[in-house]
Task: inverse folding
């Protein structure tokens, strides 16, 4: 059977040149694999101060892309030189300080990277006038959240209730201002994407529930959790990346919707994936003989939202995109990836297989043809 969605994506992305900041991070690594599957050419740009993700290292992605360059997005001259030399068709801005806990420990660094870094990207786009289509990824945490079981839509008030979230809300607002004041006059369009709690094979970040679970499992230790009842929109990393690609395709066609003032997009999972942390651990434990036991932290040193859910109707109505994978399917894919690390299997091949399998499940909207 022909995978129609895969073929449609290949038709557009083959030989396209993509500049990707934060390429060696978790999401950046998965996007490299996705774009390689589609035949695109990637220039990666990441800071040496942030270690490469397990996906990047295990899959040896530095050998897969056109070029990997060390660079700090706060160094505008170096960033500008790299973009000018590559002359990309698209730019994806993933580079960020993205951990809530770290944002409390070092708020100045978090604001510096997430705000100044984004400003530098926008300034370079404005000055060079080479890249006409870009995406800045922020977070689902930007919303002014009162923990009242609300599904946030793009037009809702943004604020951010922790340093990381607030820094991303500022970045989101800056993109909106640059679009309105500078970029659209040059026919440059920059969208922002707000995505749910991203999970997937190869994530080893600290103070994130899935990586922490596997560390506890491997070391036969108990798992410390701070907010067991917190509800999050969990989704496999492949799903929002697919949404980003569809967004950039639509943006490339200069659809009129991209000339509205609020050019931001939610990419959340299907509503059944809004689960508590405790429920995620329960589902994970079904895959293993040894059940990881949980210890609930008696003291919480910082604030996190208790309930967070996204309304993705805008993406559904305009891009034909919607959350497809169930939480059980998502966790099964993570289990498969972790198992193949142990057996030292070809992880690039496995990752591409998972992307292809997802695209086969994806229900294509007739409006996409």
Result:
């Amino acid at each position: 059977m022909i995978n129609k969605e895969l073929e449609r994506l290949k038709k557009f992305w083959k030989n396209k040149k993509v500049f990707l900041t934060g390429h060696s991070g978790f999401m950046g690594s998965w996007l490299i694999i996705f774009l390689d599957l589609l035949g695109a050419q990637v220039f990666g740009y990441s800071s040496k101060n942030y270690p490469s993700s397990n996906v990047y290292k295990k899959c040896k992605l530095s050998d897969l892309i056109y070029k990997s360059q060390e660079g700090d997005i706060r160094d505008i001259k170096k960033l500008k030189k790299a973009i000018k030399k590559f002359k990309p068709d698209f730019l994806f801005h993933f580079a960020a300080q993205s951990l809530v806990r770290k944002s409390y420990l070092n708020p100045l660094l978090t604001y510096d990277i997430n705000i100044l870094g984004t400003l530098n990207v926008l300034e370079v786009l404005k000055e060079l006038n080479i890249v006409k289509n870009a995406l800045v990824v922020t977070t689902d945490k930007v919303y002014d959240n009162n923990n009242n079981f609300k599904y946030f839509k793009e037009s809702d008030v943004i604020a951010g209730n922790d340093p990381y979230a607030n820094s991303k809300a500022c970045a989101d607002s800056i993109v909106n201002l640059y679009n309105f004041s500078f970029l659209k006059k040059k026919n440059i369009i920059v969208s922002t994407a707000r995505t749910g709690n991203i999970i997937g094979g190869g994530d080893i970040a600290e103070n994130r529930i899935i990586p922490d679970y596997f560390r506890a499992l491997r070391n036969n230790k108990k798992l410390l959790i701070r907010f067991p009842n917190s509800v999050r929109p969990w989704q496999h990393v492949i799903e929002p990346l697919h949404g980003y690609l569809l967004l950039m395709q639509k943006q490339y066609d200069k659809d009129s919707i991209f000339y509205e003032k609020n050019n931001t997009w939610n990419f959340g999972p299907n509503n059944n994936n809004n689960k508590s942390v405790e429920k995620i651990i329960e589902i994970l434990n079904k895959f293993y003989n040894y059940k990881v036991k949980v210890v609930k932290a008696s003291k919480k040193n910082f604030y996190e939202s208790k309930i967070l859910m996204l309304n993705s109707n805008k993406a559904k109505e305009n891009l034909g995109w919607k959350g497809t994978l169930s939480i059980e399917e998502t966790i099964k894919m993570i289990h498969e990836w972790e198992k193949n690390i142990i057996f030292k299997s070809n992880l690039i091949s496995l990752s591409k297989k998972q992307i292809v399998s997802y695209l086969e499940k994806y229900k294509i909207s007739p409006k996409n043809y």
Remarks:
- The longest helix spans residues 107-128.
- Residues 144 and 157 are 6 Å apart (CA to CA).
- The longest strand covers residues 189-195.
